[in-house]
Amino acid sequence: MPREITAFSNPLIKSVRDLRDKRHRREQRRFLAEGLRILTEAREAGRLPVLLFFAAASADHPLVRTLVTEVERAGGDAIETTPDILSKLSGKDNPQAVVGVFDEFETRLNDLDRTAAGIWLVAERLRDPGNMGTILRTGDAVGAGGLILIGDCVDPFSVEAVRASMGALFTIPVVRTEWATFLTWLRTGPGQLVGLSLDTEHDYRGARYAAPTFLLTGNEAQGMPSGYAAGCDLLVKIPMLGKADSLNAAVATAVMAYEVLAQQRD
Amino acid sequence: MPREITAFSNPLIKSVRDLRDKRHRREQRRFLAEGLRILTEAREAGRLPVLLFFAAASADHPLVRTLVTEVERAGGDAIETTPDILSKLSGKDNPQAVVGVFDEFETRLNDLDRTAAGIWLVAERLRDPGNMGTILRTGDAVGAGGLILIGDCVDPFSVEAVRASMGALFTIPVVRTEWATFLTWLRTGPGQLVGLSLDTEHDYRGARYAAPTFLLTGNEAQGMPSGYAAGCDLLVKIPMLGKADSLNAAVATAVMAYEVLAQQRD
């Protein structure tokens, strides 16, 4: 049976609300995900929250009931609370029906089976949580094997990244590593490392991408360091016909990933 | 000569700060743009702010000096102010060097020359300002003739949209209109209306796009209404191989737009 919390002062409420902050996520090794759609994606991917908050008004929704049942069966805690407290937890005036607290999970490079997918996404020093989530969402759509994060990237477990991923955080393996470690791992097996760059004459449509292709996207403001470019098997550029000299990082990743997908499906 | 404002209580500062709010933008018919890069893009596109705020520390930057000279030559006001006030105007702790206040501008459907570009972007009920700006930025990159907004879209002059556009708001015409008006205008001349949809068997890579192609992207959560789909010449879908059933709206628009561009360049 779900228990009830109706007091803002409850210490559990404070500790959950703290998960909006990176430092607290690191300490608790937990993160927040909001909304019935995303929590249902998570459940279907085999990830259940350790804490599930919902309001009385949504308690009878069949997907909420399924979540409550499965969370409790897995030893988690399903907690009925007030709309005000849900607002406080989600930081939004109009909270979605449910908020889940998940244990952080991690995938290591050596856990990846590179032959399982034709496309792998690699991002270095990605700074924007919206871009992080959107790249995960695109990765899911193109059937990418995972997202490999290089260097000092924004936290993929931040509330904004989880939201923008629309649940893909739960379906796509995410690895956090460093450039040298990644490159060493990459060279122990098959795989073509393709970097997006402005300093090349190779149009992205003219190149050929063999599976598995690892697509490297650099930092939003600076692109990738020249040393990284030197480590790539191929640099390609996306044509820019206007005044601006670059695309949004998530957009550039998606344009590339769909070109690779189209070639590999042919 | 630039004048100086150092008091938070100055009524001009309040009226500029108010421009972060949609209601005040509508009343004043002005909007904010921040950052030397975006303001320089605007200047190069022939758009100068009526008010330009900068801090003493950046007064000697050559691009700031050019902006000050041109703003004053055009009858605008260049105002030196404190870092604190710049923070207040930009809503950020670490404000970029300059903040500009621009008169709103508008393009009407009948001002567009549809034969001037092979690609036109059309978005209906776009709700997210980041998506709005990113679609403008992509539009610039693919050489789109303009962005046509249908129905109740987020304000393209919001601070977040201007920022995400990276200056493309100043280089790409934006038209705000209604569906019936748009469709009537469209049918008075050449142009293929292509809608992104989940309810079609046509893969976007298999279709052929003749110039001018008008690419219609629907609302982030709901896609386009079925009546709009019926008005399209062609519906296409982007393959979704994962768990999710849709892409981010700006990503989907970009994947489509680059496919059209690739075909039209061949």
Automatic annotation (TrEMBL), chains A, B:
What are the RNA 2-O ribose methyltransferase substrate binding domain coordinates in residue numbering?
Answer: 32-108
**What SMART domains does UniProt report for this protein, alphabetically?**
SpoU_sub_bind
For whether the record's keyword set contains Methyltransferase, the answer is: yes
Which terms are listed as keywords in the entry?
Methyltransferase, Transferase
Question: CDD domains under this entry?
Answer: SpoU-like_rRNA-MTase
The reply on keyword Methyltransferase is yes
Similarity comment: Belongs to the class IV-like SAM-binding methyltransferase superfamily. RNA methyltransferase TrmH family.
Q: What is this protein called?
A: RNA methyltransferase
- Organism equals Sphingomonas mollis
